[in-house]
């Protein structure tokens, strides 16, 4: 608790100090963040609470991007300034942080990375006509109003949505690995896994492959021997497991123990160092998963980012660090191209964005405000995920 | 293809027995406590979780091997079980059954979330303390770890059988189970017997926790919920309060789950387990080995 208070106090102090420096002490709602010498960008991230690890990574990515931009002279002759609020990994706090950012007069907001928090923050930001970008929130409802089916005008995301990963993996398995018979093992308690499995199935069968069997499990299951015995008998040449690392680790481990040596694949739910601890490095050889970002040794843009991040924080950037870094850089580019840091101009700039190249690849926005970009395929070598391929479906 | 189905059938039986022996170990604790106190100790699944954490601690921090870790966890969890009984259930012994039952549910949540608070909800991974050897019997695969689980379970059950049938304390346990008041009149210290029962049952759950930690090599604070419920079904299936019934119920449940996943669909596995509970409660509420007896008033 003490720790939490400290962080809250620190962020409150930072906000106060920031407003004092810029001379627009959050007085009137009409105050625009481009007044004074800085352009204020808000962040509504998971700095404490359950997803604090993701939030810390994201925050470091944002800070690194801001530092780099300011070092290079800022945007339109002004420095970028982050107004960082903590949403404590809770939707209600995410909403109140969004309201505070609006009152603070920021010109754009980095919306929460966790979908549930982003869903709480976006209506407030959209109502205030402040453009927001969620770096890693994958729930379709973040940018499209479920009831009306209409796109939320001021809300964007810097990543692709989940089902896209299913398509990407289907292309990879059919075209690159040249596999024909796939068994699918779905986490039945997760809409995420079910979505990936559905899109994988559709795309894979469209390419002429066969799904030899679809089995299911629930989160927290530990014994997969019975199901795997059945799958082994179906004789697949690839097994798709679009779940989360905890169960995936056990599935791969138990499969290898019973002599199933075909490749496995999954989505970004696999992305955790714990996966290798649970499954063991050997068992993970010949497994592939799709993700938003990968460290590519031969890509200078990516390696520059990785090295700068490491130099500043003493650890490697994660997915959210990379996506949030790109989000800030994207906002800077849009502000520069628009020639103004007015929220409406930024929103127009986002809507008409042609292309942006970042560390997570080249992107533009789809009609539904999702990022249109390639996905990365990673493979495990000695218990470490390494870049295998970059694939864009459709 | 025909031989394929036969191989698969036997493979599923082996999968089911190794899963079922875990259920049986946990079910024994349920059934013994029920036999003595007529209490369904819903915190039992969480005691099993604590056992896994003790095993994790001694294997990672103290570098213990398999057997020392197993024994250490059994001792620590046995003592924990007695403490829970003394601090939580004993003050309520004269209260109505429903208050004790609700207290047990509260205790279960207390253990889960206290563990989560102090040890984080992150799953931990067990170090490999047993070799990953695999034996091929024709086309059927048995792992060394499965054999260890089965072996440990059988040894522990025989030990329990000996204690209950051939020791003085075992005799006292049976007497208390038969009629608590009469046992008290005969000069049996019922408090001691209850504590001893909790110690035994908890130690077995602790052993199951360590075995599961080693076999599946991942543990987390909520790992006890589902196995706890399944073991409860196993205990009811065999006849709650009857020790051989718990062993039988556990093995049957494990095998049924494996066969349902293997030959029908993995989605129906839990439905089958809970379906068994409903069917047994409808047809023979006293369980497979239970005798119909009129409720004492």
Structure description:
The complex is a heterodimer of chains A (394) and B (297). Chain A is an alpha/beta fold and 394 residues long. Chain A folds into 2 domains: 2-160 and 300-359, 3-Layer(aba) Sandwich (Rossmann fold), CATH 3.40.50; 162-291 and 376-391, Rossmann fold, CATH 3.40.50.2300. Helices cover 44% and strands 19% of the residues of chain A. In chain A, the strands form 3 sheets. A 7-stranded mixed β-sheet of chain A has the order 7-6-8-9-10-14-15, sandwiched between helices. Chain A has a 5-stranded parallel β-sheet with strand order 2-1-3-4-5, sandwiched between helices. Chain A has a 3-stranded antiparallel β-sheet with strand order 11-12-13, with helices on one face. In chain A, helix 2 links the parallel strand 1 and strand 2. The longest helix of chain A has 21 residues, at 2-22. Chain A is elongated, with a radius of gyration of 22 Å. The model of chain A is unreliable at 15-33 (pLDDT under 50). Chain B is mainly alpha-helical and 297 residues long. Chain B has one domain. Chain B has helices spanning 2-37, 44-60, 66-89, 97-119, 144-166, 168-178, 180-185, 190-216, 225-238, 243-263, 269-283; strands at residues 124-125, 134-137, 140-143, 218-219. In chain B, the strands form 2 sheets. A two-stranded antiparallel ribbon of chain B has the order 1-4. In chain B, a hairpin with a 2-residue loop joins strand 2 and strand 3 (140-143). In chain B, helix 2 (44-60) runs antiparallel to helix 3. The N and C termini of chain B lie far apart (59 Å). Chain A binds chain B through residues 50, 188, 215-218, 220-223, 225-227, 229-230, 233, 246, 249-250, 253, 257-259, 274, 277-278, 280, and chain B through 4, 8, 11-12, 15-16, 18-19, 121-123, 125, 128, 132, 134, 141, 143, 212, 216-218, 220, 222-223, 225-226, 257-263, 265-267, 269-270.
């Amino acid at each position: 608790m003490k720790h939490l208070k400290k962080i809250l106090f620190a962020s409150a102090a930072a906000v106060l100090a920031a407003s004092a420096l810029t001379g627009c002490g959050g007085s009137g709602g009409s105050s625009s963040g481009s007044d004074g010498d800085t352009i204020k960008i808000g962040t509504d991230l998971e700095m404490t609470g359950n997803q604090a690890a993701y939030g810390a990574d994201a925050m470091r990515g944002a800070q690194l991007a801001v530092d780099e931009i300011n070092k290079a002279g800022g945007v339109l002759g002004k420095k970028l300034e982050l107004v960082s609020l903590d949403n404590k990994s809770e939707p209600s706090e995410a909403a109140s942080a969004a309201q505070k950012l609006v009152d603070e007069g920021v010109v754009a907001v980095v919306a929460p990375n966790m979908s549930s928090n982003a869903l709480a923050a976006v209506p407030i930001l959209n109502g205030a006509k402040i453009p927001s970008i969620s770096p890693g929130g994958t729930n379709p409802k973040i940018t499209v109003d479920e009831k009306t089916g209409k796109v939320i005008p001021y809300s964007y995301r810097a990543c692709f949505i989940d089902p896209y990963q299913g398509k990407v993996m289907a292309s990879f398995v059919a075209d690159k690995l040249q596999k024909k018979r796939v068994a699918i093992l779905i986490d039945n308690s997760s809409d995420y896994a079910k979505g990936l499995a559905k899109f994988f199935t559709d795309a894979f069968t469209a390419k002429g492959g066969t799904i030899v069997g679809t089995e299911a499990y629930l989160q927290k299951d530990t014994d997969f021997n019975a199901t795997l015995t059945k799958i082994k008998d179906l004789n697949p040449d690839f097994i798709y497991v679009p779940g989360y690392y905890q169960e995936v680790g056990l599935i791969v481990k138990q499969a290898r123990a019973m002599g199933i040596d075909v490749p496995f694949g999954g989505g970004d739910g696999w992305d955790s160092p714990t996966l290798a601890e649970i499954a063991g490095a050997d068992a993970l050889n010949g497994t592939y998963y799709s993700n938003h970002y990968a460290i590519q040794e031969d890509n200078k843009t990516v390696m520059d980012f990785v090295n700068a991040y490491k130099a500043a924080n003493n650890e490697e950037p994660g997915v959210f660090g990379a996506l949030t870094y790109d989000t800030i850089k994207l906002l800077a580019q849009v502000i520069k191209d628009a020639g103004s840091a007015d929220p409406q101009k930024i929103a127009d700039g986002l809507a008409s964005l042609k292309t942006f190249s970042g560390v997570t690849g080249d992107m533009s926005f789809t009609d539904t405000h999702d990022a249109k970009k390639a996905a990365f395929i990673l493979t495990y070598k000695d218990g470490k995920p390494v870049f295998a391929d970059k694939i864009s479906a459709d | 293809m025909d031989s394929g189905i036969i191989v698969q059938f036997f493979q599923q039986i082996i999968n089911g027995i190794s899963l079922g022996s875990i259920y049986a170990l946990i079910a024994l604790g349920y059934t013994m406590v029920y036999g003595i106190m007529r209490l369904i100790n819903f915190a039992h699944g969480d005691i099993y979780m604590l056992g896994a954490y003790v095993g994790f601690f001694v294997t990672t921090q103290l570098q213990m091997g398999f057997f020392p870790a197993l024994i250490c966890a059994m001792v620590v969890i046995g003592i924990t079980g007695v403490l829970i009984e003394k601090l939580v259930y004993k003050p309520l012994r004269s209260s109505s059954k429903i208050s004790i039952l609700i207290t047990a549910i509260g205790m279960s949540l207390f253990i889960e979330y206290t563990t989560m608070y102090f040890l984080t909800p992150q799953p931990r991974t067990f170090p490999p303390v047993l070799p990953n050897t695999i034996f091929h019997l024709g086309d059927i695969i048995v792992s060394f770890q499965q054999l260890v689980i089965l072996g440990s379970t059988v040894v522990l059950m025989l030990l329990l059988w000996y204690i209950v049938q051939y020791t003085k304390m075992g005799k006292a346990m049976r007497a208390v189970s038969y009629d608590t008041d009469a046992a008290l009149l005969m000069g049996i210290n019922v408090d001691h017997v209850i504590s001893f029962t909790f110690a035994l049952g908890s130690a077995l759950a602790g052993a199951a926790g360590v075995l599961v930690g080693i076999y599946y090599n991942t543990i987390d604070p909520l790992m006890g919920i589902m196995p706890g419920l399944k073991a409860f079904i196993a205990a009811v299936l065999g006849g709650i309060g009857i020790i051989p019934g718990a062993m039988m119920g556990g093995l049957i449940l494990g095998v049924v789950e494996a066969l349902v996943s293997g030959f029908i669909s993995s989605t129906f596995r839990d439905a089958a387990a809970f379906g068994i509970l409903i069917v047994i409660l409808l047809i023979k509420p006293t369980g497979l080995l239970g005798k119909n007896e009129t409720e004492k008033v």
